[in-house]
Model the fold of this input.
Amino acid sequence: MQASPRVKMADVAKAAGVSVATVSKVVNGRYGVSEATHERVLAVIGELGYETSLGARSLRSLQTNVIGVLVAEFEPFSTELLKGVSDAIAATDYELLAYSGGHRGGAVGWERRSLGRLAGSLIDGAILVTPTVVETGTSIPVVAVDPHTGDTTAVPTVEADNLVGARTATEHLLSLGHRRIALLGGRPDLESARLREQGFREAMAAAAVPVDEELVRSGGYRPETAEGPATELLTLPEPPTAVFAANDLSAITTMEVAARLGQSVPGDVSVIGFDNVPESALATPPLTTIQQPLHQMGATALDLLVGMLRGAAEGRATHVRLPTSLVERASCAPL
Amino acid sequence: MQASPRVKMADVAKAAGVSVATVSKVVNGRYGVSEATHERVLAVIGELGYETSLGARSLRSLQTNVIGVLVAEFEPFSTELLKGVSDAIAATDYELLAYSGGHRGGAVGWERRSLGRLAGSLIDGAILVTPTVVETGTSIPVVAVDPHTGDTTAVPTVEADNLVGARTATEHLLSLGHRRIALLGGRPDLESARLREQGFREAMAAAAVPVDEELVRSGGYRPETAEGPATELLTLPEPPTAVFAANDLSAITTMEVAARLGQSVPGDVSVIGFDNVPESALATPPLTTIQQPLHQMGATALDLLVGMLRGAAEGRATHVRLPTSLVERASCAPL
DNA sequence: CTGTTAGCGCATTCAG
DNA sequence: CTGAATGCGCTAACAG
Done:
């Protein structure tokens, strides 16, 4: 199977009758190589199909021209963001490397681990997706998207307006006549989850509707962790007439639980989500949700990062907050 | 900004009062370290927040425990696949690295370039997404998903049943009474595109409906390349009553063009796609399409790869073909 | 049990 | 203009 153990610089050098140093110069476009040698080396490179090894190169030079997107796992949120980054990176000459250590469920500190493995070697800068804790002392420029800690950190951040978005969601339910509204919250350690809960409470308070604390649960943002709380909510003696789930994945889970329980959505219970990942439109029924401009957030994060990469340490405390909007589909009905 | 230039193994060694070799042994769980030293080194590692550098490690050892997914760019097709791989990898202890060189539009040979940069150093095995040409002489195990060349290659492949899927799509249009059906094909260099065209022609022939060659265009699978041909098609003196677009992205583009032209979908023209990426449900109107089991394809590719990684060179000529199905939404109507 | 010695593939001085 | 030497951070022999 290992017919060709990979062609390395030494192979090219030998074939072209020059030294590795010369090949290196050609590859990196350094001056000090005659036209003839240049051509010849290039020809051999093409023939042998040589490519510089990312790993080896990064060990010596501090420039790899690769930007890393670090995620806990590839789920709808991070992949949507990735598309935005990918689109935006086309205008630059950076390459994209998305990495996921095996940390499903987002064990605290995964981003530090991943960053440690890649930073200082493979990537010039990193976009951290939903990091639980933002490292202050990183060696490379970092931008955080939807971070745990909110705006108080030293690194630039990009996030959606979670507070207003949650208020909008709750107001929508309220405007439909719902009063007994449940909140299936996110991970309590995430700033976004806290803001969404706060928005929920603000909207309820503004409408002078008391919050029944029994209807406030934590769904952990993931299907596995949301299923239990959703079931509890829907099987309460006096169940809610509407559920605001803090993200689409738990909203979809809630609808699945309802279906299993023989309850109709939105007949028996209305459900609204948050994020507007593509999956939400595929759900049954199509999910009404709060749109988060995921592509734009990814593109913005990339712009910020590239700016830092180019212009040294500018805008260290930039915090971009992008607006959300209501997407009405079929999972909410008037009471 | 570079407060801490990254903590390396030597730092840990110094802080723990041992040599780097010992630290390496501890990190890699090698035998030959006393319990006490082990503990102490581990403690220092935790304190300093050390992580082994992927780049440096891969240079020396041939095992990185990382699997690479190589894509031309992060668009809906590849990211859906990525989700499937990500889900399946959870059951293993591999980490996931998705890489995109900057080759939008899929310049021929991008996969060789990317493979060259990562193989032999950073990753133990690779999943190639829609490679244009499959390298025979790679140094690491490789699985191709939806390859250009079809099943004739030496590497294992995973793909959807493009032929039957295309037939299904065409038959659906036919069953709705359409006769003047256009094909907005894919990239002519891709096997999948060829099979979809073949399926289209077979279904037309089976229904004894002649194909008007003026209605067969190449849309290149991408929005930018599909827009022109789609416009031509819809502005023909005698336009088609239905369009079979070879993938969802070009189908969505077709619907956008129609909207811009003031034509209603499906009122004036029916549109059917291929892939069933999540975006297709979000389109206006929701796109009727052929579902490709993207998640499952990703998971299957990973299983194949892990199998090769474990059990040396087994199943070199495995070719998995997964079934497609029709997803009816709102972009097709009876004539 | 631990430290010392070699490189892995590449980019960079610095001589020739 | 070119090549030989050096070291990036780490692991794999071996030596103590």
